[in-house]
Amino acid sequence: MASHNDFGKIAEDMATDYLQKNGYKILVRNFRFQKAEIDIIAEKDNLIIITEVKARSTDAFILPQEAVTKTKIRSIVSAANHYLEEFKRENEVRFDIISVLPDEKRNLCIEHIPDAFQAFDAN
């Protein structure tokens, strides 16, 4: 496995731990539908939280959350709709982004962006 894949797995593990410590119930990790993948599906306060985890070794060129393009949003929304139908969930849905970046001391830091985008942002 390439080192960037290892870093992505570490970032997803960190994001999962962060969410759990903040009262989220993790329902599914790495949910796949067709070519789409949702990193984390969680539940809190009767909301289904669809979370995209973005990790970068530097923010010199682009912030992790800026890498969530309209195409990526469409993919996430499609997978989220499939999840809701497959598991017969009628909860309201929120789309979050968790970015993971190293600080100046190379410690990995999490930024949680609740309600980062809406399903209609995919259009």
Automatic annotation (TrEMBL):
Any GO molecular function: endonuclease activity
InterPro entries: Restrct_endonuc-II-like, tRNA_endonuc-like_dom_sf, UPF0102_YraN-like
Signal peptide from the UniProt entry: none
Species: Chryseobacterium lactis
Recorded family membership: Belongs to the UPF0102 family.
HAMAP family membership: UPF0102 (MF_00048)
Name by which UniProt lists this protein: UPF0102 protein C1637_01985
Keywords, in A-Z order: Endonuclease, Hydrolase, Nuclease
